[in-house]
Fold these 2 entries.
Entry 1:
Amino acid sequence: MSRPEDTLPPDLFYNDTESRKYTTSSRIQTIQATMTHRALSLLHLTTPSLILDIGCGSGLSGEILSLPSSSGTPGGPHTWIGLDISSSMLSIALEKDVTGDLFLADAGQGVPFRPGTFDAALSISAIQWLCNAETSEESPEGRLKRFFGGLYASLRRGGRAVCQFYPKNDAQKRMVSAAAVKAGFGAGLLEDDPGTKNAKTYLVLTVGGGELDG
Amino acid sequence: MKLLTLNFLTCAIKSCKTSPASFPLHPRDAELEIVEADVNLAFLQNILPRLMWAELRTIASELGLPTLPEDIPEREALVEGRGEGEGEGEGGEQIPSQTAKDLHRVLLETCIQEGKLVCGNCGHEYAVKEGVANFLLPGHLV
Ligand SMILES: [Zn+2]
């Protein structure tokens, strides 16, 4: 199976047809929902929070963030802001009338919010795209540096981020977590179902200096 | 885009990061829409200390909205008084005050649907279409 990251940049890969395929596939929706709940459990939120969703796509995770705690979203309903590089994906989010604010943005260019904005951030199946450098003036290292540096600054002290991603190999896994640590995060990699085809990698990031009370 | 979001958004261009003039971004040719939503008192209480109130007032006036109070509301003012057992919902839940509802209206229901956001430092314009802001930068500005 070829990895979409290896064929085209995400704004080209997720064209209208691919975006719709991704969003309407019930298998993908179920996997995405499971991973969002897993990420939420790792964020330890206890109160309605302001959350950044990196690579929000058509808002599959956002719809879960907007649910009340009685519907299984810890601390919810949350208010979220989503970034995505694919305008086709964002169009589907608009059609679905998601409640989060959407940005057409490339996380590899940074995170344009003032320091301490977010209580938490999550990213589902997106940050492996940062390891692609599409032009000669960009390197994966530079993109990861801008992303994690911007993310670190935009989180409040004591905040957390959880990024589920599909690393291509161990070297890429190491490169991504090293970039997060370099930006100032406390970082841990967590693997669900390791060694199987359902293996899921979660990068759990903490910002020191505040109380971890959610 | 909610005015809440605009209260946290900065210019994306690297050389603007250190300039105070890059926040807040200024709406231009903005079309506003009210998108109703449930009041989330706990969220308002959480976000209140992080608001930049003077900048929110500036933006409200630039958009021609009613003038906001000079001072940011106190956290206590967001909750309805509890005299005579009133203002307390089932299970002792807190009831949002008029102040909380007004704040909710401005921050979470007042949305920029179309227009531009302009950086006060570099003059870069970010287009907003159907409420979605375009923050993709050309390579040389990253
Ligand atoms: Zn600027």
Entry 2:
Amino acid sequence: MEVPYILDVLVSVLLLIGLFFLLTGTFGLLRLKDVYTRMHATSKSTTFGVVGVVLASLLYLRYLGLSSGLKEFLIVIFLFLTAPVGAHMIARAAYRVGVSLWQGGVVDDFKKWLEANQS
Amino acid sequence: MITPFVSAIVLVGITLSILLSAYRALRGPTIPDRVVALDNIAINLVAAIIVVSIRAQSAIYIDVALVLAILSFLGTVAAAKYLLRGTVIDGSPLHTRRPG
């Protein structure tokens, strides 16, 4: 089916923005030093990557009349709600299990909090 | 019509991203590293399925992506609880032994 040229370009740009963010998150997952910084890279940038791709799909399918766009919005809302929650739970579990920070890390506020609340 | 061409490139890029994340999931020094990498793979799969929905011009794949996002979040939460308490469902003696 034919779509107008401006929509074609817009969908392509949104797809490429999404790919850029997804690859950035994976690059951070590979290159950063400990689990907390890796999580910081993936949970932020991959969420925005999926949002870019979902917006492209919303524009395209909505123009073609194939989808109302509500489920795409549901995916966006769900990801914005659950990505920070999941990252927070994994970071908390990793700290409690005893995964150490990178040697070059300079601040550890949770350790100070734990020491203050144990005594 | 550049969308089919660009979406093919994006699919290849997402596949590359999944492979690199799989390297971290296999190699990762600690278990939380693996959990984060698997979560990243699931998010990338959601994006890939949505790109496939654009290429196929079909809205059915959106449901698949939504269910995969929900399952990925559930898996992450279950792994976090398992690491924290040694069990997934609360109420076992391990939970009462180690609060927090």
